[in-house]
Amino acid sequence: MHVFIIALSFLRVWINMAQLQQGGPDEKEKTTALKDLLSRIDLDELMKKDEPPLEFPDTLEGFEYTFNEKGQLRHIKTGEPFVFNYREDLHRWNQKRYEALGEIITKYVYELLEEECHLKKVYVPVDAEETEPRSFIFMSEDALINPDKLMILIQGSGVVRAGQWARRLIINEDLDSGTQIPYIKRAIEEGYGIIVLNPNENYIEVEKTKAQQQPSPDSSDEPAEKKERKDRIPKDTKKRRDFYEKYRNPQKEKETMQIFIRENGSPEEHAIYVWDHFISQSLAENVFVVAHSYGGLAFVELMIQRETEVKNKVTAVALTDSVHNVWHQEADKIVREWMRENCCNWVSSSEPLDTSVESMLPDCPRVSAGTERHELTSWKSFPSIFRFFHEAMEAKTNSGKAAPTRRSQRIRYEEL
Questions:
Q1: Which of 38, 144, 265, 389 has a CA between 20 and 30 Å from the CA of residue 274?
Q2: Where does the sequence pass through the membrane (predicted)?
Q3: Are 255 and 117 in contact (CB under 8 A)?
Q4: Residue 322 annotated to the active site
């Protein structure tokens, strides 16, 4: 709150100074006096005192939160849900605190995948050197040897990692709606092998050295005249610029650089890599895919790049509010036709679950996920997706029996 008041005060000062400068020569002395007053205030100390250090606990217990028996994140002492605005008028600090908690949540979900779902962590690239950056996926023990069926889970883009649909849901709602764990548990019960992709783990961050942070002046592409003008900037102007930089970022964070993971530097690359090294080598006769948001785009790219293999191995694909675009991704007619027959997109909509939704794109049928919230589409369509896979499997098994249309599926869903 103090920072906000100070900022308003100085805003008024600068406005007054600007108004004074518009006056005659007699007003120059007043302007000089105001500048002198401003220079005497120790702004550095004020800023440091207002924003607490950007240092946060590295455990849920340190944050004084835990997941209750319903999978809801609650404060250990008060039982209240997570509060984002922990410190009033310190949005940057609150955001950093939220991100720190998010990193702990990611590790917590990884533990659940291994301990509750009994999945194993497998590193990629498979031939990575010890010193090379690498990522990982999660697989069930029978993922590559299950002769019957295999389920692939692909989340959207952003901060979510393997096993998550939406970090916001995990923190503000519960583990069931925000993670892939309900899918994994039910799939295991129904005899599926499981592979959980990790498409957003594309690089590692390392701190820049001083040499990398401060490139030599000669390395700049700026014209010599511009450099010379910079050198002639008065000291008081530089001071003001430094103040504004400190106000914008009072605690300067460490500068980092990204080192991308070989052959997994993007969600699309990751999906293709996992296909080539794992999915294509599995024994399963039927591969089923659940892909949310950008995960749908990654699947379509995989389909384009490995068209014949995907058509021969994948039985059905459930997309949830997918952001793919067959035109922008230049999917050919054969790919579009295959998607119309084997894919269904559960989209955010105010219509009841499984109600047909019109689409301008000639790719796959779209039905309502029963929610208007993008991040909830995977959870709300959960039962329908398993029915969709079951019917696709039945249609394939019963040779000569045509696959059910999306309309007949919707009618059956509403009867259940």
A1: 389
A2: none
A3: no
A4: no
Check residue 308 and give left, alpha or beta (phi > 0: left; psi -120 to 50: alpha). alpha
Joined tokens for residue 73: 């994140």
Quote the DSSP letter at residue 42: -
Instruction: Kindly give the confidence (pLDDT) of every residue in the chain, 416 residues in length, as a single tens digit, with 9 standing for 90 and above.
Output: 444 445 545 545 554 555 545 555 566 665 666 666 555 555 444 444 467 777 888 999 999 999 999 999 999 999 999 988 887 778 888 899 999 999 999 999 999 999 999 999 999 999 999 899 999 999 999 999 999 999 999 999 999 999 999 999 999 999 999 999 999 999 999 999 999 999 999 999 888 766 655 555 554 455 555 455 555 556 555 555 555 455 455 566 677 789 999 999 999 999 999 999 999 999 999 999 999 999 999 999 999 999 999 999 999 999 999 999 999 999 999 999 999 999 999 999 999 999 999 988 778 999 999 999 999 999 999 999 999 999 999 999 886 444 444 433 443 333 33
The DSSP bridge pattern shows strands 286-292 and 314-320 to be parallel
- Rounded Cα–Cα distance for residues 51 and 134 (Å): 35
Region of 277 (left: φ > 0; alpha: ψ -120 to 50; beta: rest) is alpha
Q: Is 36 helix (H, G, I), strand (E, B) or coil?
A: helix
Which residues, 6+ apart, have CB-to-CB distance to 265 below 8 Å? 202, 203
Contact 162, 201 (CB under 8 A): yes
Catalytic residue among 293, 348, 378, 381: 293
Q: Residue 49 and residue 384: Cα distance in Å, rounded?
A: 54
Q: Is the pTM of this model over 0.90?
A: no
* Residue 174 CA, distance from chain mean position: 17
Angstrom distances, CA of residue 190 to CA of 146, 387, 395: 12, 12, 17
- Nearest alpha-carbon partner for 192 in 289, 273, 310, 114: 289
Q: Please say whether the beta carbons of 316 and 355 come within 8 A.
A: no
Residue 182 is classified by DSSP as H
Question: DSSP letter string over 221-277?
Answer: -S-HHHHHHHHT--HHHHHHHHHHHHHH-SSPPPPEEEEEPTT-SSHHHHHHHHHHH
Residues 6 or more apart whose Cβ sits within 8 Å of residue 261? 124, 125, 133, 134, 135, 201, 202, 203, 204
Q: How far is CA 324 from the centre of its chain?
A: 16
